[in-house]
TrEMBL record:
Similarity field: Belongs to the tetraspanin (TM4SF) family.
Gene Ontology biological-process annotations: auxin-activated signaling pathway
Species whose genome carries this gene: Capsella rubella
Signal peptide: none
Subcellular location: Membrane
Name of the molecule in the record: Tetraspanin-3
Topological category with respect to the lipid bilayer: Multi-pass membrane protein
InterPro entries hit by this protein: TET_plant, Tetraspanin/Peripherin
Length: 285
């Protein structure tokens, strides 16, 4: 009985520790939402799941310490719901970021991003005019494009140096015109539009050297945000999958230990001490 309680307590403590990377992933997404991805609702499910695991683990730990079977039972029921919610979040994260990625460009280190390569709920959410207004404003405020400039010993980088850079999806999609526009490089966020190719890409008409405009209204910028979100979610999802596997193992162990505690309690006659059972009294004639 005591061994089973100790095991349940240990499992709950380890489960509490497992909530930290989940909560950390949600906080990291939150920081990205304020600076890079600019989507402010995606992190909340993870934060809620992480906090829920912490609270439920503490309840289960208290139940094991004080031999409170109700708290142990509550831990098992709620933790099962949390595991189901975490599975649902992982499936959702992969489903909405399944399609779309950057395209390789000849003689370029960075990728170009096109909105038509993406599809589904997340694309519709980002592309919505009302919602994109908030995202583009967030991107401007974050200064993502101001940070793209580089100087080497006080000398601005050349076009050849810039073309070999590995830009982030937002930097590539929002801070420069699409490569197929054929504009000439002046600096990282300044391009000579004279002599550009009159191609089918409507973003070429939307590009502006005005530093408050750039390509923030371009489809490539929306695609860049989607590409950034995909990278962020995939990193967090890998951690969540590992945590989920360990969490399921711990849950099975805790459930087996709880069953053992319940069985031992049911087998023990009411009001009879365990010491009495171990050393039965002898009758003297």
């Amino acid at each position: 009985m005591r061994t089973s309680n100790h095991l349940i307590g240990l499992v709950n403590f380890l489960t509490f520790l497992l909530s930290i990377p989940i909560l950390g992933g949600g906080i990291w997404l939150s920081s990205r939402a304020n600076s890079t991805d600019c989507l402010r609702f995606l992190q909340w499910p993870l934060i809620v799941i992480g906090i829920s695991i912490m609270v439920v683990s503490l309840a289960g730990f208290a139940g094991a310490c004080y031999r409170n079977k109700f708290l142990m039972w509550l831990y098992l029921v709620v933790m099962l719901l949390i595991i189901a919610a975490l599975i649902g979040f992982i499936i959702f994260a992969y489903a909405v970021t399944d399609k779309g990625s950057g395209r390789t460009v000849l003689n370029r280190g960075y990728l170009d991003y096109y909105l038509q390569d993406y599809s589904g709920w997340l694309k519709d959410r980002v592309s919505d005019d009302g919602y994109w207004g908030k995202i583009s404003s967030c991107l401007r405020d974050s200064g993502a494009c101001r940070k793209i400039g580089r100087n080497l010993n006080g000398v601005p980088e050349t076009a050849d140096m810039f073309f070999l850079r590995r830009l982030s999806p937002v930097e590539s999609g929002c801070c420069k015109p699409p490569t197929d526009c054929g504009f000439s490089y002046v600096n990282e966020t300044g391009w000579d539009t004279r002599g550009g190719m009159a191609g089918p890409n409507s973003d070429c008409m939307l590009w502006s050297n005005d530093q408050s405009m750039l390509c923030y209204q371009c489809s490539s910028c929306k695609a860049g945000v989607l590409g950034s979100i995909k990278k962020s979610w995939r990193k967090v999802s890998v951690i969540n999958i590992v945590v989920l596997i360990i969490l399921v193992i711990f849950y099975v162990i805790a459930y087996a230990a709880y069953r053992n505690v319940k069985r031992m309690d049911n087998d023990e006659p009411a009001g009879e001490a365990r010491m009495t059972k171990s050393h039965p009294s002898h009758f003297h004639l």
